[in-house]
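worker-3 :: picked histidine kinase
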Amino acid sequence: MPYLAKYSPIYNIDGEVIGMTCVGTPKSPFTALLNSVIQKIFFIAFSSLIIAVFVAVILNKKIVDSIKKLKNSAESFGRGNYDERASIDTGDELEELAESFNKMADEIGKSDKKLKSDAHTLKTSFDELKEVDNLKSEILSIVSHELRTPLTAILGYVELLKDETAGKLSEKQKEFISVISENSDRLKRITDNMSDLVTVDNKILDIKRDRINLKKEVNDILRSFDYFAEIKNIVLLEDVDNLDIKGDKSKIHQVLSNLIENAIKFSKKQTKVTVMGFEDKGNIHLEITDQGPGIPKEHLGKIFDKFYQIDSSSKREVGGSGLGLAVCKKIVESHGGSIWVESKIGKGTTVHVMFPLIK
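worker-3 :: tokens ->
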């Protein structure tokens, strides 16, 4: 039988070994105790592992379920259900995340309601503005139609007077008739603008395509404004290259008349109005420059809007409906061109017009 033994030497007074002592015990009880301890340790470890796995499964299910709830809430919210809220009661970071999500949902819900309210208000305002715009167009159509007939008669009789059909005219009478003729022509341009603005808004502008020599067109228009310019001692200058475009002659005439008239109208006395035209990358580039008061920068982007006037009081002094430039822009763009304005306060304004060039 195996033993566990412990030996110790026995010493005399002189320190010499005179014998040995031995204590022994059978080995079996210790082995049994050790095996028992090992078994208990193994049992405890195995039990702990099973418990840990069980707890992990439960916790994992709880976490996964919470994440699924949060995911489903987020997807529902993303589909536009802004009343959706995440309900998670885990007492940990997931619950905090759900609370943050709910706070975000509350804010987005409030913003969405405000946006819908603002959109409704905006739509209502837009509908009202559209009604006003339609009413303006209807009024323009009626006014231009009602003015056209008597104005045509006035212009016809003015031409007869100019031709001295009714008898010889004195110089003073000729001067008066020139004033009547010029202002009648101006009134005709206004009625044409009204009519064209209505047709453009209704997208029924009829554009013919004729070959037009811009140099000749500009010179004809400048001559028609000679008297108007002489009243203010304004010198009219022309430097347009001999170039052609394709377009509606009457409409191009209307655009140039409007722009040149504006340049003269807003120019100071004893100044110059210059019309230049040159080839520019396959286009003809016209520049109508005056030496007027100039246009503030903040107004440059709006002057082509219908009825827009920079200063109503000053516009009334020289006349103006706020229609001319709006019509010009529509006509120029319908010819494949572009129009824009550059201006410096106190120095004057230049209107740029570009038309596709034909050779």
